[in-house]
Amino acid sequence: MGGHNATLIIEVTVLVLAIFLGIEVISKVPTLLHTPLMSGTNAIHGIVIVGAIFVAGAHQQDTLIQIIGFIAVVLASANVVGGFVVTDRMLEMFKKREPKKQADETDAK
Amino acid sequence: MNENLSNLLYLISIASFILALKFLSSPATARRGNQIGAAGMVLAIAVTLAKDGLDTGTYWLIAIAALIGSAIGVVGARKVKMTAMPQMVALFNGVGGGAVALVALAEYHNTIREHVGPTWDISLAIGVSGLIGSVSFAGSIIAFAKLQELIHGRPITYPGQKIVNLAILGAGIGLAIAIAAGYQATWALIVELILALAFGVLFVLPIGGADMPVVISLLNAFTGIAAAASGFELGSNVLIVSGMLVGASGTLLTLMMGRAMNRSIGNVLFGAFGQIQAGVGEAGPAASGAVRSTSAEDVAIMLAYARKVIIVPGYGLAVAQAQHNVRELADELERRNVEVVYAIHPVAGRMPGHMNVLLAEANVPYTALKEMEEVNPEFPQAEVALVIGANDVTNPAARSNPASPIYGMPILDVDKAQAIVVMKRSMRPGFAGIDNELYLDPKCMMLFGDAKESVIKLLSAVKAL
Question: What is the ipTM of this complex?
Fold first, then answer.
């Protein structure tokens, strides 16, 4: 039981640090990139695909779990692949001003 | 692969997600950031499949499921029009939430079936991730349907709505607590999930289409938090950290969006904004007929001989698919040594940053796009402010009229330009459903018509000069 609690405390520690990290990393993102950012973070929570694989790949499951696991992998992989591809499509379009133009703009912050 | 090695490799995935978010802070590095994130995700999936303790006999099923999901994802992501981006994000977010809820259900069912009985922290995580994941799934689907106009975008309200919603949520939370406290029955979780789904639907229905991006951002954070909770279920640090990164950053992003609209998140979620405004709009100065309309030729002369023109694009421009024509017009003006900048309101388009994406699609360099704080002091120097399909974000009532529902919202100071040209289809009010007193300003001229046709006419008129 001590081992279990120790693991839990480490997990909670990691969780709290991740909260601060998430806030810190995002606070410098300009409005310009809010839409790709939303879509990019959206792709990252597709990490639940790891959980979906655990469920679908577990030993000796009953049929119900097999079906649930299958659907979970479908949903999670749509989340991951769709999220990253659509973000890439957006970001691909962000281009700097061509050098021929005079530098009349300050950099977009 | 043993536990220590796999955890070490997961750490690389975690680091890549953090780097991805960090690189997203600048347009120059954002795309690389996204690619780093994708690489980290591929690594996490590969490590999971290589771990000890999984039944390799099931891998063909997992492969089929992943192929189906990826096909849906790729087709959706490639086909979606840039104007439809908010609902696409909602949909991808929703499926993620659904996956979290299903993982919770499967984990719970397994522990009960094996008579191991989950410890309190694991059952708590199951209850929480199931609840939040389901709310996110159902809410996102409704948000998608509203933005896609499958169901009406207007707030749907009925008497006693908040009490009903609260009761449903309360019952769901009650079941989650019972599960955490050790009550073991699969049906309890199933009922909890159904209640959470119902709550997700009911809580998004009363929210108007204009506020939907804030809701999507919030639900995005929800899915992140739910994924983190499922990390506790499975004892997986990579889920805890990645999920919580998204949960925390998504929450902050939601608050930032609210601030840009000068609305508290509570007001967005429970205010049924559009409804209140419909009434106020009637009382406005609308149809007083004091607006002046003008012709493309007159506007062309103003533009061609100006030194500085500020273009204020709005969603109307995107709907008319006029981004490319506007860019051509700006190019033509720049050839005539007119300085052209674009003034981007934080909520221009359908969600923050959406207009930047739409203009980027039309090859407008992002360095020509100026954010509100940066461009507002420049309006007095602009000979012409050209407002294309934008409305509420230019309404001076936000500064001057405390009775206006948008009072206090930061706006673009279009009325400080030396002349204003508004391109608009008709005098219909904007998304917030209120009239714009800018149109009654003596400096303001209206160029009525479809945004795309008007811009094309303007372009040929400028070229003819």
Answer: 0.87
